[in-house]
């Protein structure tokens, strides 16, 4: 006879790296328990200091003789947060490499429990991937190959070209980022985050409008307000892609062209390729004409090539400057002031 085995997935368990035999307080998040030290919690967090200052009721629950405090936070958040407090090397300062889940937990609980150094450190790491200038957007290595996330790479690059964490394969992390940035008032994160959300729309359309879980544990949901703002911005963003490659056909004649009998024909032929780029990169206008694509125009005279590069970059700058407004956010000037006040100029 087949017997159903008991489900052990929801049994309480000790988090081994955060269970100290001489710890004097037990925290619990979900089914995870942590035995740690009051003095360390209180030293870093005024919220914990106040919380633990109240005497425990005589009938309060004990775990191995120590008082139990149940937190209304996710295990994945609490584990990252406590490891960052108790293991100095676990969450190093930028530009050392880290990961999204650690950043998420440290920002969210650093904010909730007023651990300012963890909140700021997490926001610096998070900001390394979400740019506030087109120059940095272009200068930063945006590919996701493994070599980007090695000490050897970071040692050779200035801080403003380093991205300190690899994006999860599950792009719904972008929705977590948007919700988190709203929660901690890190609004400078949002223009680039919304841009990337639109870029990955095909993979994320269900997540945008229906609650799901990232990594099986972190809720993924946009508020109704964010959904409305994203929908409006989505239309504006994709309509801009044609403007980015408009330089291929307009103006039809470049002043000072050295070979007027040839250059218009070269541009006409490239324009057909440009239409393919509009279709392929309709949701990512900044990628609609990449450096390799200039090979299609290599037979242009130097005057036309120089002018077209200027027109292309001018269109990209205009889009970037308009990006916050596209998603109903304050202008870059205000966002940069907020960023400077919170994390300084390490990523300027």
TrEMBL record:
InterPro entries: BTB/POZ_dom
Residue span(s) of domain BTB: 23-85
Name of the protein described by the UniProt record: BTB domain-containing protein
């Amino acid at each position: 006879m087949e017997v159903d085995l008991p489900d052990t997935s929801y049994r309480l368990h000790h988090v081994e790296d955060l269970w100290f035999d001489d710890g004097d307080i037990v925290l619990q998040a979900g089914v995870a328990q942590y035995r740690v030290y009051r003095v360390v919690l209180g030293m870093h967090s005024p919220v914990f200091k106040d919380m633990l200052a109240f005497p425990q009721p005589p009938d309060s629950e004990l775990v191995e003789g120590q008082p139990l405090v149940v937190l209304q936070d996710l295990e994945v958040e609490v584990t990252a947060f406590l490891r960052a407090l108790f293991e100095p090397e676990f969450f190093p300062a930028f530009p050392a490499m880290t990961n999204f889940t650690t950043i998420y937990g440290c920002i969210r609980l650093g904010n909730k429990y007023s651990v300012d150094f963890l909140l700021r450190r997490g926001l610096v790491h998070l900001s390394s991937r979400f740019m506030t200038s087109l120059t940095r957007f272009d200068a930063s290595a945006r590919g996701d190959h493994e070599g980007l996330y090695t000490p050897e790479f970071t040692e050779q690059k200035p801080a403003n070209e380093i991205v300190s964490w690899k994006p999860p394969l599950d792009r719904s992390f972008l929705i977590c980022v948007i919700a988190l940035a709203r929660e901690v008032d890190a609004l400078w994160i949002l223009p680039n985050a919304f841009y990337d959300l639109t870029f990955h729309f095909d993979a994320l359309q269900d997540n945008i409008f229906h609650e799901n879980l990232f990594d099986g544990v972190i809720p993924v949901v946009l508020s109704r307000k964010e959904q409305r703002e994203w929908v409006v911005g989505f239309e504006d963003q994709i309509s801009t892609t044609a403007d980015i490659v408009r330089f291929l056909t307009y103006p039809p004649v470049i002043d000072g062209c050295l070979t007027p009998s040839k250059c218009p024909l070269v541009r006409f032929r490239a324009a057909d390729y440009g239409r393919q780029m509009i279709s392929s990169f309709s949701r990512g206008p900044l990628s609609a004409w990449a450096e390799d694509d200039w090979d299609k125009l290599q037979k242009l005279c130097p005057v036309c090539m120089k002018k077209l590069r200027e027109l292309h970059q001018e269109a990209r700058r205009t889009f970037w400057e308009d990006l916050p407004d596209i998603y109903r956010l304050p202008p870059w000037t205000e966002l940069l002031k907020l960023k400077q006040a919170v994390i300084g100029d390490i990523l300027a």
